[in-house]
Automatic annotation (TrEMBL):
The lineage of its organism: Bacteria, Pseudomonadati, Pseudomonadota, Alphaproteobacteria, Hyphomicrobiales. This is Glcg protein. InterPro entries: GlcG_carb_metab_protein (IPR052517), PduO/GlcC-like (IPR005624), PduO/GlcC-like_sf (IPR038084).
Length: 144
């Protein structure tokens, strides 16, 4: 058996990339005047970067993490999960998955390398801040 049969090369989001994405998201949140909780995870849902901006909603810290994990796990924006399965998925995943807007996968060269989750504004504001994170590192935007 060769290495080609048992391994594969892949892209990996670095901590530096996560910090750049985080800075871009914070800049957009400041521009909007909406303090946010912003979480960046790798493709396995492991946290690489997080910030709770001054005056961001406390409980939105948890939703931003859940949004990032969901987007990484499903390789799609959080709002695209089937609403009929939302409760079942949340229970099966220990409450870690959500259908709330504001979670976007970080896709580079067609490969999901992580995700960003944003919470504390309206759904539209959360998505706008998440999209700024993607733009900050040149990731593909999955929202038309």
């Amino acid at each position: 058996m060769s290495k080609a049969d048992t391994t594969r090369p892949f892209l990996k989001l670095t901590h530096q990339g996560a910090l750049i994405a985080l800075q871009a998201a914070v800049a957009k949140a400041e521009e909007l005047g909406v303090p946010q909780n912003i979480t960046i995870v790798d493709d396995g849902g492991n946290m690489l970067a997080y910030i709770r901006m001054d005056n961001a909603k406390l409980l939105s810290a948890e939703t931003s993490k859940s949004k990032a994990i969901t987007a990484a796990s499903h390789r799609q924006p959080t709002s695209r999960l089937d609403p009929k399965l939302e409760v079942k998925l949340a229970i099966a995943a220990g409450g870690r998955l959500t259908n709330l807007e504001g979670g976007l996968p970080i896709v580079i060269d067609g490969v999901c390398v992580g995700a960003v989750g944003v919470g504390s504004g309206t759904g539209a504001q959360d998505v706008e801040v998440a999209r700024a994170a993607l733009k900050g590192i040149g990731a593909e935007d999955q929202i038309p």
